[in-house]
Specification:
This protein is of the alpha/beta class and about 425 residues long. The protein has two domains: about 100 residues, Urease, subunit C, domain 1 (Roll), CATH 2.30.40.10; about 290 residues, TIM Barrel (Alpha-Beta Barrel), CATH 3.20.20. Helix content is about 30%, strand content about 20%. It has a seven-stranded mixed β-sheet with strand order 3-2-1-4-14-15-16, with no helix packed on it. A four-stranded parallel β-sheet has the order 10-11-12-13. Helix 6 links the parallel strand 11 and strand 12. Bound molecules: zinc ion. The site of zinc ion has 4 residues, from loops.
Length: about 425
């Protein structure tokens, strides 16, 4: 397959300054006073009339019910937005997205890397549309785990500059090693390809470009190939973890048990998918503070869209079997006290359905409050942005959403986000 020779001219210039810190928000509006019936602060639900005053893109102060009722915020000149019946929440965070992944209607094949479009500029336009859908669904931050041609760095800058609406993007760049089907890489790594020097050099290269994460395929595996053969040794992965530290982290795609064992022993920060985790490995994950991003809903999405995606016979059964393994892994991880992060693995036309993952975490045994924490406070911790996003508190970014009702009683409300504010800007109103 031909690899596009051109790069976005802008990319080189844009790759300079994307640390894992929050991006600057453009042209922030004046103050806004939000009122609602209750508030989920990222950890707990606070019932009763609440007020939140937003100024200069941040939460300035909040009025929460106390023993003597709710104190009133006096904010002359502030725009008032009343959301009766609604619950305010921190903007959701999706820990696993692929904004650039497309489905080609012409070749009837997945487009992971921009191949069929021929130009990363066109991929960037497609990704911008996906980013807007994601934001309107209430996701004000995403961790991008795989994009070609540094499109996600460029998109993050474009969003940051106010050129196009989208979530804050914390990115991992292209997956290493890249997907199968590319002529310019060996797949799977044959043992000579995967040396410690090679993987360390790759981690340094990504961090040097401004990525905060390196996504490594530690095992083979998609829903269609669940063999989960491990690729890198513990020592090779540990080299990448060291090269990325202290300001970057490794996310490891692990579909088999042995790959997960190696990744956990190497000290990666998150295990993606994590099918077939046993008791010993989840115990180690809990002890070392390693996050699990189980990506449950996307398997159902594939099952629902299998005919359109032209999957071969038996795809439903294979997807259901993998789904069961991932549910079992989540059950063991939760029992062991592993931090479970909410990541949708949104691809193709799934962008904007990201909140389904919150619902599916509850199907796998998390309580609604735990699932909401997973998409807010836990993910903020994963991204090392605690106190800045994923919480409603003074000084945090004014990333605030609202749903019509109490999502701790009806978790399905997370897919009915009625109000979205990002960095003090109203993106969506009821
Ligand atoms: Zn993924």
């Amino acid at each position: 397959m031909m690899r596009p020779a051109i790069h976005l001219a802008a990319v080189a210039a844009l790759c300079l300054s994307l640390a894992p810190a929050l991006h600057r928000d453009h042209a922030v509006a004046g103050s806004i006073l939000l009122t609602a019936d209750r508030l989920f602060d990222g950890r707990v639900l606070r019932e009763g009339p609440v007020q939140v005053l937003v100024r200069d893109g941040k939460i300035e102060t909040m009025a929460l019910p106390g023993a003597h009722g709710t104190p009133r915020i006096d904010a002359p000149g502030a725009e008032r937005i009343d959301l009766p019946g609604h619950t305010l929440l921190p903007g959701f965070i999706d820990a696993h997205t692929h904004l650039t992944y497309l489905w080609s209607d012409t070749t009837h094949a997945p487009n992971y890397l921009g191949d069929y479009l021929g130009s990363p500029i066109v991929v960037a336009f497609e990704a911008a549309r996906n980013a807007e859908k994601t934001l309107r669904a209430g996701f004000t931050t995403v961790r991008q785990l795989g994009a070609s041609d540094d499109v996600d760095l460029a998109l993050a800058q474009a969003i940051d500059r106010g050129l196009t609406p989208g979530p804050r993007i914390v990115a991992a760049g292209a997956i290493y090693p890249p997907f199968p089907g590319r002529a310019d890489i060996r797949w799977p790594p044959d043992g000579t390809a995967a040396t410690r020097q090679e993987i360390v050099a790759k981690a340094r290269e990504y961090l040097g470009k401004g990525y905060a994460w390196v996504k490594i395929y530690e095992t083979s595996g998609t829903w269609d190939d669940t063999t989960g053969v491990p690729y890198y040794t513990r020592d090779e992965l540990a080299g990448a973890v060291e090269a990325a530290a202290p300001r970057g982290w490794v996310a490891a795609h692990c579909m088999g048990l042995e790959g997960a064992r190696r990744a956990v022993a190497a000290g990666v920060r998150s295990i993606e998918h994590g099918s077939r985790l046993d008791r010993a490995v989840v115990r180690d994950m809990a002890r070392r503070g390693i996050f699990l991003v189980p990506t449950l809903y996307h398997l159902q999405w594939y099952a629902d869209h299998g005919a359109a995606l032209e999957y071969g016979p038996g795809y439903g059964d294979r997807l259901a079997a993998l789904q069961k393994e991932q549910f079992d892994s989540v059950g063991r991880a939760r029992a062991a006290g592993v931090k479970i992060a909410c990541g949708s693995d949104a691809v193709y036309s799934m962008h904007g359905e990201n909140a389904q993952e919150i619902i599916w975490l509850t199907k796998a045994g998390l309580t609604p409050v735990e699932a909401l924490r997973s998409a807010t406070a836990v993910n903020a911790e994963l991204l090392d942005l605690e106190g800045e996003i994923g919480c409603l508190a003074p000084h945090a970014a004014a990333d605030i959403i609202a749903v019509p009702g109490d999502p701790t009683r009806d978790i399905n409300l997370v897919s009915r986000v009625a109000f979205v504010m990002k960095g003090g800007h109203v993106v969506r109103r009821p």
